[in-house]
Amino acid sequence: MAVNRGFVEQIEVGRAGRVRVRLFQEDGSHADYFIRDIDGDPERFNERLSKLAILRDAMDLAEPVEIEHTQGEGGDEIDRAVRITRDALATPIDVESFTGIVISLSLTSTNRVVSSGEEEDVAIVQLIDFSLDGRQFKLGMQTPERAVATEQFEMLADAQRNGTVVTVVGERKFDGRIIGVSTSGGSNNDTGGRMTLDVFVESLGILDSQFSGLAIVTVTTAPAFTGAGNVIANDAFQPQAVNLLVARGSEQYELCEAGLRDNVRMSLVAGRRRDKLEHTEGSSDVSINSSAAASTGNALDISGIILDAKLLAPLASASRPVWVMVSRETLDVGIEGPACTEGVPSSDLAPRTLRDLHIPYPAKWCGAGCFNHGVYRFQFKIASPISVTVDCRELCLYESDDKQWRFGYACLGGEHTVCVSLPKWTCEQDFNMDIYRIR
C-alpha cells in the first residue's frame, strides 16, 4: 500500500461508476487514481461517495490531499482519501534566487482535445543580472494558487515596463519553476563588482527583439571631480567610449535620455561584466574584449549595465562657479618672496621679515571660473578693506547689519574673472569668501 500527496486536477466519472482522479503530486509528476464501482455494492456506497466528495471539495478549494492506494486490475485504486493542510506538504529544498532585470516575458498555452495529458499554461521569464549573465525561469499559471500566480505575473510585467530590479526564487528540480517573486531589489551575490564613471552621453539606442526591454547607451568618459567646487585635477586623462545597457522605462533610462538631450555631464554606477573583473576597482580602463559581447546577442562591446545614474548641471555646479584658475598675489614682493612667514617673532624682537612686523601690505586674489547663468552673491568676511571686480568692472559692496559681512551682486553666465584687492592685508587676518547663485 502506497501513499501520495498532491492537488486534485481533474475528476472524471465514466461508465460502470468508474471514477478517475488526476493528481498533481508533490514531486511535480502527474498520476491517475481510480474509485471502482461507485454505483455498485450498496454496503460500501457511502464510503465511495465520501471519498469522491472529499476529492471534489479539495479540487474546488485548491487544497492538498493525501491518497492511500493499492494496485488493482484497472490501475491504482484509492483506499483512503484525506484532506490535509499545506503545512503538511514538503517544502522546496533545492531553490535558487536570481536578481536582475526582466528583458522578456511570454505567456504560452497548449490546448488539445484529449482525455488526459493537458499541459498547463506557462509564462517564460528571461532575466539579465548586473554582470550581464542571463537566466530563464518558468511560471506555472494553472497552479492551485491561481491568484498568486496571476499576481506574480503582473509583478514581472510591471518590472519589465518600469525597468525595476526583481529577485526570482525558483526550484532547480523543476527547471527553474518560480515559487517567489520580489521587487525589493537588492544586489545579486554574483554581480562581481561595480564601476563608477563620469561621462557624457553620446547616443541612446534600442537592441533587437531578444533584448527589447533594454537600451544601449554609448558614453564618453570624463575626468572625475576632485575637491570642493567640482574642480578637475591637472592630470593627464584619455577619454574612452563605453557601451552600457539600461532598462527601458526605468528612471535611469530617463536620466540618460535627458543627459543626451541637454548634453550635460552624468555620473553613472554600472555593474561590471564577469570578464571585466580582472581590472582593479576605480581603473579608468573600462573596455573589455569584444568577443565577450556575444552573450548579449549584439555585436557591440558591452561593458556593463547601469544601476545608478546622476544628472549634473551644465557646469556641474548649479549654485557655485567652477574655478578653472586661482592665483594669489602680494603686490609688494621683497627679498623674502611672495609668501607669509610662518611662526612667531623671535624672543629678542628681531624680526626675520617685514611680515613678522604685521605691517599692512597690498595683496590680490584672482580666480577665473565658469558660471551657470543667474544672479550671484559675493560674500566676504575680511577685516581689511577690499574692492571686488568682475571682468575689470568694480562691484558695489553692502555691509550686513552686524557690520561683519560685505556683499556684492552680479548677473553672470559663462566664463568670468573675479579679483579681490586688499590694500591693507596682514598675514594674521582670515580670508573668508563665498560665491553662490541666488536666482
Structure notes:
The structure is a single chain. With 439 residues, this protein is mainly beta. The protein has 4 domains: 2-88, Beta Barrel (OB fold (Dihydrolipoamide Acetyltransferase, E2P)); 95-182, Beta Barrel (OB fold (Dihydrolipoamide Acetyltransferase, E2P)); 194-311, OB fold (Dihydrolipoamide Acetyltransferase, E2P) (Beta Barrel); 322-437, Sandwich (Jelly Rolls), CATH 2.60.120. The protein has helices at residues 45-60, 146-162, 251-262; strands at residues 2-13, 19-25, 30-35, 64-71, 76-83, 95-108, 122-128, 134-140, 165-171, 177-182, 194-206, 214-221, 225-226, 231-232, 241-247, 265-272, 302-311, 322-330, 361-381, 387-390, 393-394, 398-399, 406-425, 432-437. Strands 18, 19, 20, 21, 22, 23 and 24 form a 7-stranded antiparallel sheet that branches. A 5-stranded antiparallel sheet has the order 3-2-1-4-5, covered by helices on one side. A hairpin with a 4-residue loop joins strand 4 and strand 5 (76-83). The longest helix is centred in the middle third of the chain and has 17 residues, at 146-162.
